[in-house]
Amino acid sequence: MSTSDTQQKLQTLSDEYQTLQTDLESQISSLRRLESQHQENTSVRNEFSTLTPESNIYKLVGPVLLKQEKAEAETAVQGRLEFIGKEMKRVEKLISDLQSQSEGKKMEVRLAETHASIFLLTKNLQVYQLQVQMQESV
Length: 138
What we know:
By secondary structure, the protein is mainly α. Helix content is about 85%, strand content about 5%. It has 2 helices and 2 strands. A hairpin with a 2-residue loop joins strand 1 and strand 2. The relative contact order is 0.13.
């Protein structure tokens, strides 16, 4: 394997590792958004318990506030909480998988770096041995 082949392989592995890291950061950001939405919806659900039966609930639809029944609003919020919870679990699994892939790729990069170093050391040793042989023959 030539030096350029080794460098090309190392560059490819580094690019793949960087792509995994970018994907991982994106998924962590998604998880944070979902956690925020979950917290907001949990707060809304908790507020429902403080309402009296006569309290009015309004839902913002575009620029308009529409009156909504309490049971309907509670069902909608509970549905959102369930959906967000499932989405959080999916993203957490994806993050875990990306972390594993990233660690594996990182090990591949380190191994390729080690191989490249050994390759260069071997080449340098061969050059040195040739120089010694040439000096001894003189």
